[in-house]
Amino acid sequence: MKKRTLSIGAVAILSACASAPQEPEISWGKADVPFIDYRVDSIECAMLGATQNISEREELAEILRGVRQQERDLDIRGDGADLYDMLRDYNMVYQRSFRGNVPALQGVMVETVHQCLRDRGYAEFALTGAQEGLLRELDHGTDERFRYLHALASDPHVLARQAVTPDTSAGW
After folding, report:
1. In CA terms, which of 21, 82, 118, 147 is 20 to 30 Å from 132?
2. pLDDT for 89-129, tens place per residue?
3. For 26, which DSSP code?
């Protein structure tokens, strides 16, 4: 009976994931921005986000407490204690200390990038399915990919037609 319940649960979860509307790929653009400015702005804003000072944030303190707790648990249990208990405790610390706090810290960094882009006059736009398909074919970090994104991000018509607004993003 337990296996059947697990199988039904897995199918239900997979079905829900498959039927959930997929959010479009979001990018940032500014009408008629020259390629060099587009690249410099993206690099400088990314660096601001990556170097955001998070040392005083409570989320980081909680993560560090969790790391210390996990290390203590491993040290204490290193004497051949029940592996199941050790893994259970290790997982409980993970759930409590990492699961929500890491995404929260990432959110702080990403919001720094977004604010930097807004301050420089950029706005969000959603890629169409066809644009996403072309983008997937281009290798990350290549000039070809940068130039493709720039062509979209600097086109005033693309920015107007595909602008992300509270109304458009509510359906995702």
Report:
1. 118
2. 767 776 766 677 788 888 889 999 999 999 999 999 999 99
3. E
